[in-house]
Design goal:
Number of helices: 2
Number of strands: 0
Shape: rod-shaped
Largest sheet: none
Helix content: over 70%
Radius of gyration: 19 Å
Mean pLDDT: 89
Distance between the termini: 11 Å
Strand content: under 5%
């Protein structure tokens, strides 16, 4: 049960990171649209690079979250088997 609680705790931390990155990505995409409208090419390129980096980080965190979910499920199933 201790392992299960630990895994769930880690997964909650990952979920917080996931939600933060999603909100940051949305914020950057809004800035991108504004800069696009203003045709600020230099700043636009900079924000596009940041968006690409955030998308990659978000994808990585999402994969970690999925892995953690599988671990939580396995841990829970182990608990059910031993009970």
């Amino acid at each position: 049960m201790k392992n299960f609680n630990h895994l769930v705790s880690e997964q909650m931390q990952t979920m917080e990171k996931l939600l933060y990155l999603q909100s940051e990505l949305e914020r950057c995409e809004e800035i991108e649209e504004e800069l696009n409208a203003l045709q600020e090419e230099t700043e636009l390129e900079s924000i596009q690079i940041e968006i690409a980096n955030l998308r990659k980080e978000l994808k990585d965190i999402h994969q970690l979250f999925e892995t953690q979910t599988e671990e939580v499920i396995r841990s829970y199933q182990d608990i059910k088997v031993t009970v």
